[in-house]
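Notes from the pairing session

We agreed to fold both candidates in a single pass and log them together. This is the raw record for the first candidate, unedited. Please don't reformat it; downstream parsing expects exactly this layout.

Candidate A
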Amino acid sequence: MSLFVPYPEEFAEKYKKKGYWAGLTLGEAFDDVAAVFPNKEALVSDERRLSYSQLKNETDRLAVSFLNSGLKPRDRVIVQLPNIAEFVCCYYALLKIGVIPVMCLPQHRFSEISYIAKQCEARGYIIPDFYRKFDYLEFAEEVKEAVPSLQYVYVAGEKCPEGYFSLREMLQEETDAEQINELLEKNKPDPMDVAVFLLSGGTTGLPKVIPRTHNDYLYTAKATALPSGLSKYSVYLAIAPLAHNMTLACPGISGTFLNGGKVVLVERVSLESMCEVIDKEKVTIVGLVPALIIGLLNYEKRGEYDLSSLAGIVSGGSKLNPEVAKRIKPELGCNLLQQFGMAEGVLMMTDDTSDEERVIFETIGRPVSPADEIRIVDENGLDVPPGEVGEMICRGPYTIRGYYNAPEHNKTAFTEDGFYRSGDLMKMDVESGCYIVDGRIKDMINRG
């Protein structure tokens, strides 16, 4: 079975020729940055502080350990970890050997995990031992019983039952450097291979599987890092779940690493912990959903912390009320970047360096790529006049051409000429050329 619906050849050639697709894997792109900034701090998680060279070495060793455990390129592995260092290590380790991580949330339970694992024919499952009073070890047994393809379980934490693999022990395995390089080279994926499976928000309780290639997902991180102003001086706070597209690559940890910045992980989503970390680590940028932005603005203890390092907040996930948006600069002293996007592809952002305040407060900006094709259409698929509301459909160098293993659904989710039907009602702000969200064609289930 093909892992993704391929881009038509003429589009693929155009995206390569124009440089949108760099012909690099996500693992190679990370290693290139690590070679430039070997001693620079890359990742902070609780008491762990890893430089770029240390993080590279950990992901290399872990990649080889995954191969030695029985995984092979193109295998699928369910990743259900909170925001801890092991998530980042596992993610890049799997990317380097062509094993496909399937991004699941810690709060997913049996109906979602068993369905996704069956849908992907997953061979591996990465879990914490316990998290938020939930026993994932016991849970993994239930999932294994329901999913015949699931052979290997990898555990982050102190407890690891017999028959499971301890990530801590895997990271401590001594492997010859020459053997590591040989195995990584032998199992290196092609940039056009699927890198990661994301999950849709969905209009039903069970998500659809979204295949993203190395080429298109690397471009996603690069294209969103630019308007976000990321550089080697940036400190990105990952407080939303790492499995979310925004935190993973929009620009997220991927965009930060590509620019030589530092990623700080927060496991507990609370205003107190967020303020503590911004103060301690001198965070410069954070991606937040509107509910957290409102919470931060109204947090009565905010004045007890030094948040002056914060230069930008990327707002995504749902619509931010203009009245809330107007409070950010005066009260928090940082810029607002509105972001609209979907795991299926297209992303729009405002630009605080060039957009006027009205555009930043009231719109979601413009597509991040010059190659994004956006149409606003009526119920018959015909373009509506500028300024009128219709469904946004899109295609481009990082928008998928089909969901994984869903041929019947793809017939209605995509047009015959490859445009993705987003289900989002939008209109163009004629004056600025930016877009305004006006709702959804169908109600979505928000799974937190």
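Candidate B (folded immediately after A)
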Amino acid sequence: MTPVAAAAPPAADIRPGRVIVSTAASGAEWDAYVRAHPDGTVDHLWGWRSVMARALGHEGEYLEARRDGALVGVLPLVLVRSRVFGRSVISMPFLNYGGVLADDATVAAALFDAATDIARRFGASHVEFRHRTRIRPDLPCRQHKLAMQRPLPPTSEELWAAVDRKVRNQVRKAQKSGLEVRSGAHELVDEFYGVFARNMRDLGTPVYPRTLFRETLDAFADAARVYVIRHGSTCIAGGVVLRFEDTVVNPWASSLREFRPLCANMLLYWSMLEDAVRGGATSFDFGRSSPGGGTHQFKLQWGAVEQPLCWEYVLLTRREAPDQGPSSGRFDAAIAVWRRLPVGLANVLGPLVARHLP
């Protein structure tokens, strides 16, 4: 794919105090800026650039903004070619967060403008910025997803005392059922993926390729962990977490429905939360949910606090912000068909389709 780079300003325009946007960023400096910015998230980190390209086939254009040589803003963009939705530019697709990080409004405006220029040259219908808060009130915005995050106490004993009594009883039930908890890295990916892929088929959603999780572990080797819950020799639940500063983020988790009476999903989340506390984290991010959905209620019972996300849009050839999620109702028939597919067939077809559903 031919890169769609941001054009550098003419030399005559490079004046003291001017904001210069380019694609000349380096990973180390980029990540240092993300980690220092109050709105930085794990989804802004440089490592996702290779993950998106290698696992999902979408190239990135990572924009940096400088003023008098100093890095003052960043914007990770992914150029998405979808056979379902056409071309779009998104920060960040397949993830919960993204969008502009900037020192001030002038820098933010320069990054918005550069992203719009890239999208036009790419032939995109729109640019989607997955912000956590409103940055550009003048742009269309959708608040159809909730961020779910829980503050963590200093000790696991305090965490245990704080969770709902029903939750504690379900965790105890799982422990008394003899379920085994394991955490690790690449050696657990296949077990996790078996559960994740089965659950995605049951939900009527094409599954991501297995390489997405392997590439994520490669890109964030020091921050990523895989958890599995076993019943005997059978993996019945699993999840992936990423540590970002003082927050542990759980972007993916699943459990098998037929083993639900054993409460494996409760033991999975308790294990991830307990390890986060023991590791000194002060916050656990459950990922995003749709208001009123099953995962929304599940996360609330763990004490998660909800915050509406603000996905802002620059519309180029569209009149309205896109509504491409399964809750829109547009894909009910396709979801019903997918749920009836044999698991093996769904696992073959899923990765071919999922890369087109950002």
